[in-house]
Amino acid sequence: MKNENRFFTIGTEGRAELREKGSLFIGYAYPIQRIDEFRDRLLGLKKEHPKASHHCFAYRIGADGLIFRSNDDREPSGTAGRPILLQIDSKALTNVLVVIVRYFGGILLGTAGLTRAYKSTASLVLQTVPIVQKFVEENYLIEFDYTRTGEIMQVIKQFKVRILNQDMKLFCSMKLIVEKRSAEEFCQRIGSPVHKAEKEIA
After folding, report:
1. Is the overall model pTM greater than 0.70, yes or no?
2. Which of 132, 135, 141, 171 has the lowest tally of Cβ within 10 angstroms?
3. Does residue 1 sit within a domain?
């Protein structure tokens, strides 16, 4: 059963290689959180491998995994991007990008051979990285009188809340990142006006 308070992703970057009938498939796995990170990674690999025949990829982003994309990069439709995405999904991962760079070896693999090669390379590279559990986070804005600063900071420390920004005047406000699993209890402990805030997209 899916837990709305947590998700699984990869802890580090990974790399793996597969050779199939002369073609070289190089798989790269990256933990990402935003689409602009995907663009930067793909651009970097295209610069690193300018003579490669293909740069195929798939990613899934977000705690709910609803942001995703796959691309065959001129390989026959459905033979590259989809098999890569299916490997990400088979491990129930999100916030993950897998790019597979192919150097053509002169022998056509056919659609079945291509699908198998991209699937195997994606599986290999995902085996090289640790899978980690992370908790879903939410942004909150709190407001309080300056005289409560010590009390508020103690609750923030207790719940291991991260401070995004703060305005400490006579009447204070803070934008915070709180784990969803403990957000209700945290808000009750704060006791001041607490508002759910939109996440900032870089």
Report:
1. yes
2. 171
3. no
